[in-house]
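For anyone still unconvinced, we reproduce a single protein record, the chain in one-letter code, the fold tokenised, and leave readers to judge:
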Amino acid sequence: MIAIRIHKTGGAEMLRVDDIPQPSPAAGQVRLRVEAAGVNFVDTYHRSGLYPVELPHTLGQEAAGVVTAIGEGGASFRVGDRVATARAIGAYAAEALVAASNLVRIPEGVNSPLAAAVLLQGMTAHYLACDTFPLKSGDTALIHAGAGGVGLLLIQIAKQRGARVITTVGNDEKAKLAREAGADAVCVYSRENFADAARAFTNGRGVDVVYDSVGKDTFEGTLASLRPRGMFVSFGNASGPVPAFSPLILSQKGSLFFTRPTLAHYTQQPEELRARAADLFGWIASGKLRVKIGATYPLAAAGEAHRALEGRATTGKVLLIP
């Protein structure tokens, strides 16, 4: 079968289209035919070597499709079930393995591209807004990259929870998308200082929380955007990792909190995983959550998808279709 693998780390040119044997599910695993795979920044981190993986490595963690084989202990699923996961083993492929405990069923009315588009980024937005800093009515939040896959979903969930939202984007087209998602204010960072905009948004006080997926380029401005005892939630490295810093800076900036969460720790139990997915699918069905699929690429064009994502040329979700 066809799979997109890396044999050494580096740029998007390292992605290779390989013909590999169809995997067989081990105990507790399920194999699914991939109908759509999500492209996420974590995939680029594995490709570049920022997050080390054993080589050769088939990229991709997010997939939706149909169960084709079940290992011992995966009997809660049947061949033919429509399923999705944010923790596949090699989603950039015709077929992929996943632990049965990391699978959710796709409800009626949700197709595979939509399921693949919402699961990883949607559950990320869910835990950020509902658990890492549980937003409530009256809270103020700065969301970086508001026209991206996580950003558009996080804006909508934050507004559902009653927060006021300011977001950063790169251009006017992306600003329009962020406003349509419900952002109260939008800062086009290429022509204005987002820390100043965040202070103006809060009458000089600073926001309660910043959800920062950008990393290196926004680090100092994010610190300057927060109120005393506000929370800096660093959950991505789109521009590179944040620089090394002394904890003393958190004291100097107002006794700030800093956290670096990851989805795996907010979906450790199958019950928690499925509860988050159920919320997302329920919000989609009720019209409370709109998912934007910004671009789809053939599986063999994964390199193009990575270049577009890293070049900030995308909005919403990017998918690969085998």
